[in-house]
Design a protein that fits this description.
homotetramer, 326 residues, alpha/beta, Rossmann fold, Dihydrodipicolinate Reductase, domain 2, 2 domains, seven-stranded mixed β-sheet, six-stranded parallel β-sheet, 11 helices, 13 strands, 21% strand
């Protein structure tokens, strides 16, 4: 890896998350986008599919050796299971990897409970959960980072300052349609999604495993709703934190996030529109009666996926954490 | 009231709720719309303002005597405080009234805590809370009914079968923009409301008083979010009900709502789109871990306001409850 | 057909147009919905798929004999080509048919130019173009009616009063996403369709053949745009009509449509929102300089498809034209 | 003006156009935002009102002397008439100005026909119409530039390569709601604008004067429609250009725009989504029958207002034309 990793491959560059990875890397002052892969659309240029992103890269099929020749680091935006297999090939060739799938977020037991048999369990030991606000130093030292889920990112950023003190939590997530992915389905059809709100996967959402892993044990309920917007997540968190007062809560949050480059602790309930197309997260906390209520608003494709992946990569490569993200 | 109340006045017929009241009454097989009031728009025809509703009634300024001459019942869709004063005038003239404002929903103490000094406290004793699923017989016997708030309607319909057993509840409400009213404000501007989700009135929403009144004491949190759709409310309710199993919960709900003409207990999380422009409410309940999760989806202008008001009026007048609402 | 056709089958009752046909027939005072067909979803109830329409009919696979036993008339909402084959089977069994596809709208030459070889050309002679405002008497006498395309309906209703006088016309159509059908595609994905406007089929839209057939020869351009709403079409028509003044144009339109039950000639540019979920069409005409500008707003699923099909069927069966449509 | 104009004031920095001006200047590598004015919101920080833009500037009331002390150039985003008065004060103090209002776009006669008496007619002689694709050299030499209207920008960019050859043109514009400005009105209310399309100002739109001025005489019709999206304009232009073939048209456009940094001539009808939040314009031209059809898609706040104003300013200051705009 003679270039220190600054030549970057994006695998799966035609999904919503991967496409934005390509765009951010392409414009990044210290990184160079050298490979962008796709299956069905190999041979076409990225900017034919995503004109707004203006990335002239020609898409190609994935070949690990070819990637390793031209890149020192990779952002992998494949579906889970496929991701693990690609990550193994890249790690075997020495690339630093941020994987945006769920494959390396959980320990093996939790993963196999929510997903399926793990395809590359030998790599789980080296993988770091890529939430910089919780694991900055580990990320900086890692060669494999697992990008957190978008809903989990919002839920965790809304509650991290209270880690260890939350007895009971309800995470009510409102997520835009791009979070459901690029596949055209009945649910993502405009005539279903517009003028509609609904919860999904009520009986148990995979992201709850990430919450428990990061926040520690507690009585947690996690539920996601589809709302009719394109990019954006609002996490509304209803917490039981014995003895916490509003002043103390606000002070804790301001303190915890004072040095965070992408977190704004704000004085009123945040709007998803205010973070759209940015890597920022707006957090608000208050205590009403004996319930602590905390919010986080992010753009699911930025701080919830591609932006955060590049933030991780910046840390892994020793670059300024915010580079290419402002 | 020689006509038994079937000649109906709608006061405030140009706001979103009042306009729909006028439309429903106009098409109602047993009711006749004889008066529709407005201030700024008096003299214009209702269907100039709301062509889709096709109500040819000429709008006029409110005059209690004129209304009493031509109507035996009234739906009052004025802002609170103004509503109480109009209701008093109509009650003095013997009209049956459904008031859509908050003025007669609460007892005087609760009202004055959340709103202001009450303008017609002598009427509070006779007012009945107009949620048919909870107070059908009282409504049928009443001369003054207080239409429930739209958010409260959704929250209560999602939880009524568990009344008295809920120790702890989080009511997370997602409400469409029409619920914010017809006034053009920064919040209702398309360029604010589209591509946005945000909570509002986090420190305490007036509707929570209705919840406590109807469900009895408990540790309740109630929070409303603005979502980018026009008509629709989804209430997601996270409940602690000791000992409740999923099977028992489903049985309780099916039993409680078996005879309800407008409530559908459904097998999966409801979509607001599925009740749009109807007076129906779709309810779903499940138990995940030790948390009971219940949902209700309604159209805020129908079951949350105008439709429910006519449902109340049908009961008050001895008409079939569903008449004019299907 | 001992019932005079009032027992009605809807073929293809799970597409957007067919689903609404089923709903309108189900609620129609003089019609009875006896059959609703579907392929993939046979065996399910219609109201599982379209809860808002509240049609409890069980969907079944198409069998011409079974349909003929239980119905005297049919609304066919199949894709073209498939439609022609089904229509032939139904006509052989004596049913009156309104076909919503393009299969019977054009003469054979025009059809085969824009579509493909016709599957049932022997029926073209008896088919009537189902725009009541142009062909009311023929429709009333017909056994096979071809429902006009939704875009053509809007374009024609905006211009019919000037038929024969239009030298040059640009029809610029703005159409909601439901017009693209229920199939989930890249174009109907919320994350493509929201915050977007684009023209499609610029090189020649099939609907232009209907325009020419109905308006007679002229220099006509017809172009459709996808706009981010669910139901609605606005046709903006820029016409060269030598010698026409504004007063004369308005008088012509008011006169032509004076007796039309579903057409409103209005004094300003119409809004699609004002006809949403109705069978109405709002038309406006003016002359600016030497250009006549005419608009029509309809709901593509109602006056543009299912509503108009039932309007046709009412005529064919000797029922009041507006029955079931208000 | 010792700094050569690189210290920049934005007047009217709280409207949609002005707010984006502030953001672009703030991030511009060669410019410094030194003043941002507002009336009602003076004293507040820009990023309180527009968090997404992240401009920390404190808003202040307009004072010409104070502006002249701290800035060598200004972007003026005031309503017309107010703009002219402010521009005069700034020009008297030697600042270079780009004015985004209509005040300096037209000659006095045309202006006073469409607007009102001009407040600073003595400046009309020095003002240059700020469409770089038409007037690049004049803009570079100017001290006062009039930013084109957003609808006109789209219409002109779609047709400029045919200037002088267009006999007849229909410009059908579809414009997002942000183009109607930040004021909350009945038309910008979400519950009016969503699920709606309508034309406005049918009898004559002020922007048509700009078209005639730039394209020369012809039989032109210009009409704008409000469509339910936030940022974006699509101009669909139906042109009569005698003798023009499709190949020639495409060649003409490719040639005319080959060196333009912000114009993409594309092979199919452009989507507004593809230029959202960019200063780019996507243009497509074809010939169908004897009609030339041309499209341009822009973001009304970027290439239609703030982005183009900075593009003008870059030219006026001798900076790279695209600086700060990519």
């Amino acid at each position: 890896m003679p270039d220190g990793g600054t030549r970057v491959a994006v695998l799966g560059a035609t999904g919503f998350g991967g496409a934005l990875c390509a765009r951010i890397v392409h414009r990044h002052p210290s990184l160079e986008l050298t490979v962008a892969t796709a299956r069905a659309e190999a041979g076409r240029r990225h900017d034919e599919l995503y004109p707004r992103y203006a990335v002239p890269q020609v898409l190609e099929e994935f070949d690990a050796d070819a990637v390793a020749e031209r890149a020192g680091a990779a952002l992998v935006a494949y579906p889970h299971k496929t991701a693990a297999l690609a990550v193994r090939q890249l790690r075997e060739r020495g690339l630093k990897v941020v994987d945006l799938s769920a494959d390396f977020r959980l320990d093996q037991a939790a993963y196999e409970r929510w997903y399926q048999a793990h395809e590359a369990p030998e790599l789980l030991g080296e993988a770091v959960y890529g939430l910089p606000e919780a694991h900055r130093d580990e990320i900086a030292a890692a060669s494999l980072v697992a990008g957190p889920g978008c809903n989990s990112t919002a839920a965790l950023l809304a509650t991290l300052p209270l880690r260890g003190r939350i007895e009971d939590a309800v995470f009510d997530i409102k997520a835009g349609v791009s979070g459901a992915g690029r596949e055209a389905t009945e649910e993502t059809h405009y005539s279903s999604a517009a003028e509609n709100v609904n919860a999904y996967k009520v009986e148990g959402h995979r992201h709850s495993a990430e919450i428990e892993q990061e926040l520690g044990p507690g009585r947690f309920s996690f539920l996601t709703h589809l709302v009719p917007l394109d990019q954006g997540i609002l996490a509304s968190c209803y917490l039981t934190v014995p003895g916490l007062t509003k002043d103390e809560a606000v002070a804790l949050y301001r303190d915890a996030y004072a040095a965070e480059p992408f977190i704004d602790v704000v004085d009123s309930a945040p709007h998803t529109r205010h973070v759209q197309d940015t890597n920022r997260c707006r957090v608000h906390v208050t205590v009403v009666g004996d319930r602590t209520i905390a919010f986080a608003a992010i753009d699911n494709l930025w701080k919830g996926a591609a932006g955060q992946a590049v933030q991780d990569l910046n840390l892994m490569l020793g670059l300024p954490e915010t580079e290419g993200l402002e």
